[in-house]
Amino acid sequence: MKKRWHFIIVPMGLFILLFFTRLILPTQIDDVSSTIPCEKELLELADVYYVIPRFNNVSNNKAWCEEILSMNKELAIHGVTHEYKEFGTEKNEEYLQVGINDFEECFEFTPEKFKPPNLGWTSKNDWMKDKLKIQNKWNQLTHRVYHCNDTGIYKNWMAKIF
Question: How far is the C-alpha of 65 from the C-alpha of 140, rounded, in Å?
């Protein structure tokens, strides 16, 4: 009987590759907002902050914006209001522009990257790819991603381990 080691070797190799990829690529933190408490340790740990510009329809205050800017991290936009699967339904350009305007007012530059809340996405929003670099579900697999309020699919302690 022929042994089929490749059924073990190939998945193990992919797992090891993914593990080292996650160690090398920048760490990220989602759900950054002035109205969501975030541990300083997490903010210091992450390289990229995905900011919600208008969480619960409240814009981030200027003092908080300056504090986040002083952390000297890469900043990107994480939805507009962060409703559940907010971009799993079709949105128009005006809707997105509200979030971009709030982000620009807060940080005084235009975001280049966008990650939809809960990674909900419909192809009807593909028009956004002309404006922003969209981060999809692969992003969560290839990067260690933390959440300010620890509400992600994987808890923050799991992201630290793997």
Answer: 25
CA distance 28 to 46: 5
The CATH number of the domain covering residues in 26-161: 3.20.20.370
Q: How many CB atoms lie within 10 A of CB 153?
A: 10
Other CB atoms within a 10 A radius of the CB of residue 109 amount to: 10
Where do the structural domains in the chain lie, given as residue ranges?
A: 26-161
Whole-angstrom Cα distance, residue 55 to residue 80? Answer: 7
Residue-wise pLDDT for 62-92, tens only, equals 999 999 999 999 999 999 999 999 999 999 9
> Around Cβ 57, how many Cβ atoms within 10 Å?
8
Q: Quick one: which of 49, 68, 42 has its CA closest to 159?
A: 42
Q: Report d(CA 128, CA 91) in Å as an integer.
A: 9
> What is the pTM for the complete model shown?
0.89
Q: What are phi and psi of 30, to 5 degrees?
A: -95, 165
